[in-house]
Amino acid sequence: MMQGKMQFILRRSIQLSLGALLLAAPMTGQSVSTQKTVTKPTVDYTHNVDPFIGVDWGGNTFVGSAIPYGLVKIGPDMETFDGRRSGFGYSSNGNILGFSHLHLSGAQGKYGNILVAPVTGPLKLDDIRTPRTDEVNQVGYYAAKLTRYQVKAELTSSRRVGFHRYVFPASKQSHLTINVAAALGLGNDWQAQKFLGAEIHLTSNHEAQGVARFIGGWNRGGEYKVYYYMVLDTPAEATQTWTGSTLSDAKDATVGNSTPIGATFDYTTKANQAIQAKVGISFISAEQAKQNVQQEVPAWNFATIHAAAKALWNTELAKLSLTGENDSQRHQLYSAMYHVMLMPTDRTGENPGWKSNEPYYDDFYCIWDTFRTSSPLLTMISPDRQRDIIRSLIDIYRHTGYMPDARSGNDNGRTQGGSNANVVVADAFVKGLKGIDFETAFAAMVHDAEVPPADPQKQGRGGLKDYNQKGYVTLASERAGSRTAEYSYDDFAIAEVACGLGKTKEAALYSSRTHNFANLWDKDMTVEGFRGFMRPRNPDGSWAAPYVVVRGTWPDFFYEGDIWTYSIYAPQDMRRLIELAGGNEAFVRRLDWTFLRRHFDVTNEPGFMLPVLYNYAGRPDKTADIVHMTLEKAFTDTRAGIPGNDDSGAMSSWLIFSTLGIFPVAGQDVYLISTPSIPDASLSLGNGKKFRIVAKNLDGDGLNRYVQSATLNGVDLPNAWFRHAQIKDGATLVLTMGPAPSAWGTVTPPPSMSDADFHSCVDWKLQNHASE
Amino acid sequence: MMQGKMQFILRRSIQLSLGALLLAAPMTGQSVSTQKTVTKPTVDYTHNVDPFIGVDWGGNTFVGSAIPYGLVKIGPDMETFDGRRSGFGYSSNGNILGFSHLHLSGAQGKYGNILVAPVTGPLKLDDIRTPRTDEVNQVGYYAAKLTRYQVKAELTSSRRVGFHRYVFPASKQSHLTINVAAALGLGNDWQAQKFLGAEIHLTSNHEAQGVARFIGGWNRGGEYKVYYYMVLDTPAEATQTWTGSTLSDAKDATVGNSTPIGATFDYTTKANQAIQAKVGISFISAEQAKQNVQQEVPAWNFATIHAAAKALWNTELAKLSLTGENDSQRHQLYSAMYHVMLMPTDRTGENPGWKSNEPYYDDFYCIWDTFRTSSPLLTMISPDRQRDIIRSLIDIYRHTGYMPDARSGNDNGRTQGGSNANVVVADAFVKGLKGIDFETAFAAMVHDAEVPPADPQKQGRGGLKDYNQKGYVTLASERAGSRTAEYSYDDFAIAEVACGLGKTKEAALYSSRTHNFANLWDKDMTVEGFRGFMRPRNPDGSWAAPYVVVRGTWPDFFYEGDIWTYSIYAPQDMRRLIELAGGNEAFVRRLDWTFLRRHFDVTNEPGFMLPVLYNYAGRPDKTADIVHMTLEKAFTDTRAGIPGNDDSGAMSSWLIFSTLGIFPVAGQDVYLISTPSIPDASLSLGNGKKFRIVAKNLDGDGLNRYVQSATLNGVDLPNAWFRHAQIKDGATLVLTMGPAPSAWGTVTPPPSMSDADFHSCVDWKLQNHASE
């Protein structure tokens, strides 16, 4: 551990010597993920990103400017058609209400704080909305013409500072307003945010600062305080504050309830007069918000900050390189990279909860979504970032008692299913990530597995007592089916780390629990002509009453997946599950049926692995069919290009892996091979090495989607899977494609717990992954 | 021919000696289909029928009372939500406008004529609509409470007469109105009906008669005249007629344009006073309409007419018997039988176009829909009815020049695709139906194949010149792809009949054309990873410009089907088509993909055969999967129980065959075996024999949906198909079912033109099917 800490301190000193380009990067503390590799890229990848991909059809992707993992995500907040304030932050239609500084991406139900809006003409506090035209969103840059006011708005940002530029028309009544009571999804329903009160202080004719307090939102988190410091490049002719609907000359205003509050800087503007504003955000203090401005954006050069943001993105985007892709694929994949790296939020130095030298990340929204593909992607291509994220999870455990399943607004909640941070830790562990205190991580995992939480919606494992006593969660707890399936896999993750750390007793204990998913398997339950499904048990152990058709499952037995999805979810032991389902042939028929009947839903994460499960039954050709179909059917490079909520980039990372033709078994050192859609693609591995995937004979029509043969680093690869150890020092996977299924990949399935080589810690091939 | 005619005359004399029960049956001329087997059934099957199945979600099934194939279909016409008059005749919501006498089933866009409606209180001619409650529809019976007027309405019918009974409340202003200007879907669009004018004559205080003239509608037919005669059991205190919005004491009214016209019989009613009305319909004259009433419904006994209608239906419904079915299956299948037998309409004796002693049927709406399953069903279980229908088609050819592809309102039109009456004739021919002049039928088929029609929307083969000169229809004609595929199959039908009739020269000619479908096969066209598809050719023979994504095909290249559906449509030569598609394995993958990607649409007839095509590639297990899925997914016993337009019963007959586990290859003497869903089912064959299908080991869950072995009449049946000759004298097919695919049915595919045994007429096994 101390070694890791010193590394951070050392790196910080390096960082402080960097120039203006890096002022937008993390300035305080220990989060230094991108520093090692920061060199000015010679290629600009950012033009491949279209931030609008996924904004429609519920993709919920962020519109505005942010650096990778940026704390500040500045963008427009919208009024929706029906007059309600959007809970989503952005819609293709609707009026703009202003530009606020905190947003999610691929998620909704939180933030939208500190809303800045220009106005010309009479200032109507309750009606500032304006249509917009000429909307532009590029990496680190947003612009629109606000037609009601004839103002052009431009935004860029550094990690904790939003940079606004407004070009006004000639007007004797020009205003720059700051609304500190605003937030997205305010209201009274149980998932709504609530505004609790705020302060605003006009410390000069071009400065405002204060704090705004909120509570609730999707994660039902506790109070979060947003400190802000706003500074303008042009002194105002007059300033006013408001509370309620009353403007006042007072320089200070405070409300302790939901009363509107804000301020306006008033000007007489000439035609095309630009007024700029920098708004620093902090979760510590208004003073720190001011420091953030001074450190990150010391000058008034919009272009410099925009260029710095682009440079940081180029460093991240350069980790993917493509050859032979089409335009749509290029736009989709780089936009996916962008979307993956908007979340979680790097709040290092901005943790109001406790003092620590560890990195601090927030907006795990939520790990239940991201552990399956986003985490393995970062483990592969951004191991230092993933190290920091996991260190942050461990630090949250230290100070809150649990690693979160979800967290936002500096508070844990709301759990979706299992304690899937366990899998995130195991994924990093079995892939050999350095710089993580795996002993403490292990303690956190065991805590998850042994200590029932007071509020299972907030953190920890709901129904844990049942699970640990009976081997399954009963109907006494919600989501009993998905929890049982996921806890079994979480326990597998714990067993892996126990093995690697030499804790043989714990390894044996948690290994024994990895089979618990089978305790809910009713071998006689028959649905749609298939026999054997997960079925709820009552608290007394008896099977629940017969299947009731409510969204294809018992009410609240599974979460975001039906009986088909969860009954084939056991990545730790697909061999056993296939035996339960009747053997390879019956399992293949069941999978066929699952896809044929649309039981597979790529927009919900529990189904993410379904297409590649054919590999476990010797039918990688069918994996190819489904992956190929899903990519073609569900993803495009348009505003509706993501088929559902991007879920903090989970969908986007699924897209990246699936387009490249591999799929990670999260939490295991295993990747499955599906079908590449691009002739030649590489991923940087964070150690200067690359993993390259070459698909020979690929055609643009998807005809040659079947792997005929494969080599890895020139050596014949007969299997439709490989291990992380085989690529971690750089590798080239060459797949020869053809128009018909072949014998390739049909013999040796990917590893399962029931396989001989999973029976002991020694054989788990974890010997190289000891803790530091 | 003369022999057939004498048979009819003989039968007529038998018919005339039958009693009151048969007064509802055809009374004039030669249509005697049901007479031979009319005996009072001991079992009432009619309670298994729910006429409401299919009324929602566009099933368009008829609501009201009709006998099998009845000319009069009396039922409610509805106002829709938005105030428009429904084009569909019925909706679950909306006000009732009255009860009219002509309707379609599983179709829309025609009729709704001679609208009778009771009214109490002031008579507002432009607002007679009323909500209803307590709606009941049973076989031959409809009832509803009309809440605005507090009148209970009941309906029953014979072939050409609607019988109304209205129970009034106490009222000094009770009216029974007859609106002769009414029709469904009036308007100005190109598919609208138009009212041209009418006469009404009040010949007494309880009688009205006249004619109403209409034109257009879905089939864009010429003018049709509906003659009517209305008689009431209660003399009115006063009568009035109206034209426009003006009521008058005049006993006669005439309009020669679209002016409203009608009459009212006015009463003072006591509480619960019943007033009954009989309305005879004729297409010949008002006098004949009156005779129809006198012959079919001589008395005022509503119950007798209702019982007669039920008896006729029981005769038809008794042709299906089920054992071990569940309630839903029973309701679905008998309702399907009912829906199949509502169309076409037996108008024997009511043909205004020409005098003939042949049967006369109308409302082929359209044969393009029904030739695939409805015709083979009738050929099997109602051969005498099918004989009459085909005789009618031949007679229409004699007098209009073409057998229709569609016909309604006594006029041919509007063609959908090929001249599929050819297949209907061949289906009857190869299955040995007697009493049909196949020489004239053959002349009609050749006429279809050789003489381009003046208006291909009305009748005949569009693009025929191209087709016969080049071997394919070019893009110069609409629906070039579907027409080419269908003409190829139509020509196969002609070749079959030519063979059977000993016309070897014609057999050779039309045999050679059966391969024309392959002339549009572009072996290099690749879509979604599959190679080889039908592709349009320009008039100069070159391939059309690349695939444009408009509903999955080129605009107007295919009709009600996409490139996937039509590119695997060649029932005459699946062997050749499978070779084009790359062989059995590739074909199975293509079919898998077709279903996976939802290119299969059971609601459009071109896809009807897709599920059973696996049988041609040795995979009857996959046929079982898809049939099983489609039944479960698409059909229920509810108002929304038919997944799309019933298309005159085409969907319903697909449902019957698919539930029983067999499927006819229309126009061939071949049935394919899919997967039965009922343990024991029999179909009467019209000759006193039955075809029984026994499924051993069937479970209610669809688990044992795979045939393991089969016997036909006790003899091992290794193939997943059999010939009509094997069952025509009665047969029992025993299928032993199991939970996993077996080797059964995988070796010898169903016959194809490219098979050796299709190469000569002698080998077509048609030797028993010589013409009379």
Oligomer: homodimer
Helix content of chain A: 25-40%
Question: What general outline of chain A do the C-alpha atoms trace?
Answer: globular
Rounded to an integer, what's the Rg of chain A over CA atoms? 26 Å
Counted by DSSP, the helix tally of chain A is: 17
Q: Could you name the ranges of chain A where pLDDT drops below 50 across 5 or more consecutive residues?
A: 1-38, 765-772
Number of domains of chain A: 2
Provide the β-strand percentage band of chain A. Answer: 15-25%
GO cellular component, one term (chains A, B): cytosol
Keywords (chains A, B): Signal
GO molecular function, one term (chains A, B): peptide-N4-(N-acetyl-beta-glucosaminyl)asparagine amidase activity
InterPro entries (chains A, B): 6-hairpin_glycosidase_sf (IPR008928), GH-type_carb-bd (IPR014718), GH92_a_mannosidase_put (IPR005887), GH92_N (IPR041371), Glyco_hydro_92 (IPR012939), PNGase (IPR050883)
